[in-house]
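Protein SCAI-like, Salvia divinorum. Tokens?
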Amino acid sequence: MSREEDAPKTFRVLVENAERKFARVRDAPLHPYAGSGPQYGHFFHKVFKAYMRLWKYQQENRAKLTESGLQRWEIGEIASRIGQLYFNQYLRTSEARFLLEAYIFYEAIFNRRYFEGSTKDRGVRFKELRFYARFLMVSLIMNHVEMVKLLVQRFKDLVDDSRVNFRGTNFKEWRLVVQEIMRFTEADSGSASSRPLRYTVMFDSYPASLPYVARFHAKRLLKFRDALLTSYHKNEVKFAELTLDTFRMLQSLEWEPSGSFYQKHPVESRENGGPADHSVTSGLIDVNLMADMTDPNLPPNPKKAVLYRPSVTQLIAVIAAICEELPTDSVMLLYLSAAGNSDHSSTSQVENNEITRKSSLPSASANNRHELRNGFYENHITTKGHSNLYYENYLSLGPSRNGSSNILFPGDLIPFTRRPLFLIIDSNNSHAFKVLRGAERGEPAALFLSPLSPSFKNSSVIDSARHGSQFTFFLTAPLLAFCQLVDFNLTEDDKNMSDSTESIISTAFSKWEQILCTSTDLELVWAQLLSDPFLRRLILRFIFCRAVLTLFCKREEGDQYLPICIPELPSSVSANSKAVQPSITQLVSHLKVTDCFRSL
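Tokens:
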């Protein structure tokens, strides 16, 4: 058999081999803590190797394969599978280079129209629909706004065309996917006119306070390398298995390359610019482009497990895996956004019981609730007779039809307080988790607890199900959250207003950063987190959120509208302090929204 005759046969063997290997990792959990078995870590390398060998072979033998009947959609399917593998590896490692590789392959498929002409084959049309959904996900996470807009329109048109050309096929599920992505992009539309959610050295590090951060020292400094993110709210905005809340938090825990590749730039359509390459020799995808898009000067991103509607046992299993691998000098961030049993009387009962518990303690300074003995923090708060407090209130991590498998109690997290834990609860029942303070089993936990109810100037037009949780919005995009609160439209056209407003907030954050770095009243729980840029930024944004909501006109209606941090941050950064209130006053005056803040 000649080499020309052998090429198609070899190609098919390579395709079958690659698909067989891919099948073994198809259902592998897409997070870093799924285990180290061959079906997870090591075997991913074999799948990559099989598909890259297949890709190289089709490039080197394109003419022979085309003569023997190779279709363009087959090339597109191989490239799409490689893009999918890269994206899955990004989810498993949080390494930006894998996300960029996925984008390179997907963009090449899109520009070269490998799936064009799928109107004649229903199977090919489904492959094309799946490609668009995956490319949309990658473009969303990369914050490639213009590409997302173009893809959404093309995706919608493709689903509409499918209903016409394949009348015997039900495309209801794909219509729902279109509705999901349109809701998602509408809810996230404000980010198009704002700074990236990712940590941007240019915007998020402040020259005036950098020397204070550099000199800051505490008895113990923890590194942030691991996070778990999950959210569930009825009818929440989501795309595929990524909810709006976890999307925002995911981005805020990553670095923005200084090359600004993630930032929006015009999309050059091959239709209106240079001609699309439809020749048989097309198919060379320059994987070396990644070198021009990454920033070697940035540290690696923290690893993140993004869980979609996990059962409580699944959640606890992943938390346990993180704790097992967590180095002794590191902290785990746990972000939970979910509704709970929202009976506020239950929360009052928790607070009353807290008072009862504290009154039974020996007199001690509030700053000395934990003492270090033999290398461990000893808990002075006795839980005898009050253990039910840890299992009265809860969060629902999934639909109620799943029963108790989705119910997470505060007490479920106590075993994991043997390791440093930074817990962020965004819920209408968040205050129920105050009982964790003093119940830790080795390490005092740091807690951010959201308000029980959101605040808005015009609450009739703001729906959390359509816009995401307000507290999470403050922690990830503080200016946009403030504008949403006071119903101020910060348009993309008014760049001067946007820049000047961001400058006011940056100046305030720089000042508060200096105060925290020099404070003698800063609890060790917070001091040991302060050297990490991601966690320090979260702390600064919490101070901003708490101050804004405290000074907002609804403040007299009770603590249910205010977030809580445990333990308390220094009074020098409280809402009414000399360092904080004037900054909020300046922001309010600048945007001319003083009517929302009656005391300013």
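The chain has 21 helices and twelve strands.
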